Task: inverse folding
């Protein structure tokens, strides 16, 4: 790493963080000069009762409100098209995303298309969005993706994960209310928390890492090492939920600095695209074996990670301390209940070639790893995770 390299830091217009801050959503939208907004969410959010308070806040501020609630896990581009139809029908002028990474990504895409025209796929790639979209506020209900502050929107286009990467799609407001995560089931808390860990870890050992990024990543991973087990064990632990929401924010910022994650996400994208495994769980189940495969060039960094995770590395060589980090990550995945064989997710040996082939199409994130996996190595990682 060198400070001679150029780097940047992309962020939403404003982050509002704290228990109960979502009650002021309507006031924030009014400050964006909006009169009619589209709320983008999914049916799970409605069943959990999380939409009601947001609607009360928006309508209580005098805003007209339309709702699109059909966002799917691993959303297809068609979700954006459907939401845009409602946006235009109700003559909306702002977008509110409420939910996990999928609704937030769709909300970003809707705002982008509303301001630029065309379709989501027209802007796929890095830095291809001409201008800011419609006013946008994002409210996460998980502590996982960091989508509320990130420059990414990921959809499934023609069967493959496709991303728009551009600071033009960042939110005007990221309204982070840890209270919205209290109803998360244990397994979702675990998977999304480990997704955040992947964002931080992969940014930390990315080819695009910087000293600023390293500091953010180590802090986020330290927090997850301390609080994920608590949040999984007791979902009503307000302190643990708040710290996990904080770590998720840091993960979003870290990925902004490195233009996305790396090899773990590449394999997870393939698993999600081919088997519709939720994104957080895909990353969680692939984390251990991918990290072992790509760890060799990163001994010194992993030694610092071991210390951040509370391991005693006094007197150890960098290689020995790196081994402590691998063991600590493996314990975290196991304790969170996510050391799940792929066979339990309906993956069979006959599927390994298709998964490996799909992974190798994820050139953007694969290119961020300091250890470049071959197709044969990718296939072996999937086989080892069966």
Result:
């Amino acid at each position: 790493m060198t400070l001679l390299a150029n780097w940047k830091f992309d962020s939403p217009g404003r982050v509002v963080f704290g228990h109960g801050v979502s009650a002021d959503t309507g006031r924030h939208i009014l400050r964006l000069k909006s009169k009619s907004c589209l709320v983008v969410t999914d049916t799970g959010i409605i069943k959990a009762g999380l939409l009601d308070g947001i609607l009360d806040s928006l309508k209580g501020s005098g805003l007209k409100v339309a709702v699109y609630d059909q966002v799917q896990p691993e959303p297809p581009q068609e979700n954006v098209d459907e939401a845009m139809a409602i946006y235009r029908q109700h003559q909306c002028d702002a977008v509110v995303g409420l939910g996990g990474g999928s609704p937030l990504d769709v909300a970003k895409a809707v705002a982008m298309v509303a301001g630029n025209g065309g379709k989501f796929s027209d802007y796929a790639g890095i830095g291809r969005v001409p201008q800011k979209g419609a006013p946008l506020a994002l409210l996460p209900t998980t502590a996982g993706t960091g989508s509320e502050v990130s420059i990414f929107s990921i959809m499934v286009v023609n069967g493959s994960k496709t991303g728009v990467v551009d600071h033009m799609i960042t939110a005007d407001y990221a309204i982070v209310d840890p209270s919205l995560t209290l109803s998360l089931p244990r397994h979702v808390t675990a998977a999304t928390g480990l997704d955040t860990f992947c964002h931080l870890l992969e940014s930390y050992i990315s080819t695009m890492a910087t000293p600023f990024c390293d500091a953010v990543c180590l802090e986020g991973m330290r927090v997850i090492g301390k609080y994920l087990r608590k949040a999984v064990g007791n979902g009503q632990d307000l302190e643990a939920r708040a710290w996990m929401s904080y770590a998720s924010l840091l993960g979003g910022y870290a990925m902004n600095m490195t233009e996305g994650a790396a090899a773990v996400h590449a394999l997870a994208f393939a698993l999600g695209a081919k088997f519709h495994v939720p994104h957080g769980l895909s990353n969680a189940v692939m984390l251990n074996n991918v990290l072992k495969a790509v760890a060799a060039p990163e001994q010194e960094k992993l030694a610092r990670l071991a210390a951040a995770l509370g391991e005693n590395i006094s007197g150890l060589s960098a290689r020995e301390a790196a081994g402590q980090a691998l063991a600590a990550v493996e314990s975290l995945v196991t304790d969170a209940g996510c050391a799940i064989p792929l066979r339990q997710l309906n993956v069979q040996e006959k599927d390994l070639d298709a998964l490996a082939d799909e992974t190798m199409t994820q050139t953007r994130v694969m290119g961020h790893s300091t250890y470049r996996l071959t197709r044969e190595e990718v296939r072996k990682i999937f086989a080892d995770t069966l």
About this structure: Residues 306 and 325 are 4 Å apart (CA to CA). The chain is about 50% helix and 10% strand.
